[in-house]
């Protein structure tokens, strides 16, 4: 039992097969931890609740594909807290079985997002794309089949795990291809307000009064708080019951944030903070490049 608990405490869960980009992100952030592949995002969250993993790595958006479907529905009800963020550069590799050449390929397998992110290469090669549940799963499948006419688009890590050859590296259309991940845990780990730039993620629903959303968000503008994300999605099976997912740069203990949240609270109900966490250094890099 002690060994199992020790292993779980040093494990981070992700959705996908071994070698997926989420697996790579886990290893990038926590190279000292074991990674636990899970079939679905729900399974990834459940692994943390069941104490089979201490952390969960969840992709939330990509610079090419946009937001990850259904994530915003899962986060508020996950029962977990966001404790960190990570930006992972996505490098797509064209993989083949040992000894295969590009000229032999007739089909290429991968996740729908990866296929869309490599459309120019796929079109130039004249191969047919085949959609799979995840990139690493596609790599595993072609490795098992051993057919030289079948290739996969995945991370280099998947090729190493499943013994595949790299036929071409960095085949993505956009060189800025980056996925943002959230790291989640059972307990909140709120950083010190004076410890550096922070991000606060929260969800809310506005009251049914005219201009409620405009008024609710006005406090962030008047108090100089930068809102980096605001997305709405339907809840409760109604076209009128919209919930909002928002992210702002700041810590709830800062005066400007306290005032902004006071105004938000006046015009909303069911507001909940999902996490307060350090801003990733990638944000500063992006700000400096713009």
From TrEMBL:
Example GO biological process: L-phenylalanine biosynthetic process
Amino-acid biosynthesis among keywords: yes
The Prephenate dehydratase domain, residue ranges: 11-186
EC number from the UniProt entry: 4.2.1.51
One Gene Ontology term, aspect cellular component: cytoplasm
The organism's place on the tree of life at top rank: Bacteria
Upper taxonomic lineage: Bacteria, Pseudomonadati, Pseudomonadota, Alphaproteobacteria, Rhodospirillales
Gene3D superfamilies attached to this UniProt entry: 3.30.70.260, Periplasmic binding protein-like II
Protein name: prephenate dehydratase
């Amino acid at each position: 039992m002690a060994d199992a608990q020790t292993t779980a405490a040093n494990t981070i869960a992700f959705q996908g097969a071994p070698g997926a980009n989420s697996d790579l992100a886990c290893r990038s952030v926590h190279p000292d931890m074991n990674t636990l592949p899970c079939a679905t995002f729900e399974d990834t969250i459940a692994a943390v609740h069941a104490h089979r993993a201490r952390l969960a790595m969840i992709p939330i958006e990509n610079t090419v594909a946009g937001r990850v479907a259904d994530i915003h529905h899962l986060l508020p009800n996950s029962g977990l807290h966001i404790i960190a963020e990570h930006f992972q550069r996505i490098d797509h590799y064209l993989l083949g079985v040992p000894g295969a050449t590009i000229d032999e390929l007739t089909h290429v397998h991968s996740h729908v997002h990866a296929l869309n992110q490599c459309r120019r290469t796929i079109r130039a090669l004249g191969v047919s794309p085949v959609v799979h549940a995840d990139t690493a799963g596609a790599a595993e499948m072609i490795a098992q089949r051993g057919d030289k006419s079948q290739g996969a688009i995945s991370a280099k890590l998947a090729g190493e795990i499943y013994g595949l050859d790299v036929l071409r590296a960095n085949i993505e259309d956009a060189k800025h291809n980056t996925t943002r991940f959230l790291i989640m845990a059972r307990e909140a780990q709120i950083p010190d307000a004076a410890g550096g730039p922070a991000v606060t993620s929260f969800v809310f629903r506005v009251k049914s009064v005219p201009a409620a959303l405009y008024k609710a968000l006005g406090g962030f503008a008047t108090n100089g708080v930068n809102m980096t994300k605001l997305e709405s999605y339907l809840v409760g099976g109604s076209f009128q019951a919209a919930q909002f997912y928002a992210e702002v740069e700041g810590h709830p203990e800062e005066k400007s944030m306290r005032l902004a949240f006071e105004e938000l609270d006046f015009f909303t109900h069911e507001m909940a903070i999902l996490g307060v966490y350090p801003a990733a250094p990638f944000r500063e890099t992006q700000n400096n490049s713009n």
